[in-house]
Amino acid sequence: MASQEIEALSAVLSRLPGLGPRSARRAVLWLVKRRETALPQLLDALAAVRDTLVECDICGNIDTQNPCGICADPRRDQRQICVVEDVSDLWALDRARLFTGRYHVLGGRLSALEGVRPEDLAIGSLIERVRAGGIDEIVLAMNATLEGQTTAHYIAERLEDLPVRITQLAHGLPVGGELDYLDEGTLAQALRARRPLG
Questions:
Q1: Where's the Toprim domain (predicted)?
Q2: What is the value of pTM for the model shown?
Q3: Cα 141 to Cα 5, 7, 105, 148, 156, distances in angstroms
Q4: d(Cα 181, Cα 174) in Å, to the nearest integer?
């Protein structure tokens, strides 16, 4: 039987994405066995995160400075904004180093089931950024879910009267994907987005 402290730490860790109760207990056991070396490093890293990370007032990214490094970078194309649901999506896209513009983090997606309304997301601040001028293109990079696509359509409707081009990430067949293993939604999107060959 584990002590209350170990159970409490396991319960906290099990709330992290990707960690269930069993994985959390394994992580706690690993930390306890290495408490002289690993635990101080973890505590220092957590304290640094608590003390130094801030949310960017412009785009919603998480960084050690405000505005974030992306918004402050003069080499970034200020005329393009890529709209994403969450900071993790921004980080994934930016790691690929294919988009040279700036970002806008919504902080989620519209969901009637979860009670997430337009005013719960950073859609208003996106509209303000576009109205301020200097933006030529908005790239909607929502996840290929029903809620993600609903959010993209809602944003497109809100932007339709403004002088900005609205584009969306392509969805469909992944490279190396076999038709037999793909879900119906992916196949349907691939068929709708088909284009001429050559």
A1: 79-174
A2: 0.81
A3: 42, 40, 10, 9, 12
A4: 11
Backbone torsions φ then ψ of 137, nearest 5 degrees: -140, 135
Residues of the chain with pLDDT under 70: 1-2, 179, 197-198
Reference 118, options 130, 106, 129; nearest CA is 106
CATH 3.40.1360.10 assigned to 78-168: yes
**Residue 164 identity (one-letter amino acid):** V
Both structure tokens of 52: 């130094």
CATH 1.10.8 in the chain: give the residue spans: 4-52
Q: Where are the alpha helices (DSSP H) in 18-105?
A: 21-33, 38-52, 69-72, 87-95
Is 79:102 a contact under the CB 8 Å cutoff? no
Please report the pLDDT score of residue 184 as a whole number.
79
142-147's contacts with Cβ under 8 Å and 24+ in sequence apart are 142/83, 142/84, 142/85, 142/109, 142/168, 142/169, 143/85, 143/89, 143/109, 144/171, 144/185, 144/186, 144/189, 145/109, 147/109, 147/110, 147/111
CATH placement of domain 4-52: 1.10.8
Q: What DSSP designation does 64 have?
A: S
pLDDT single digits (tens) 122-174: 999 999 999 999 999 999 999 888 899 999 999 999 999 999 999 998 877 77
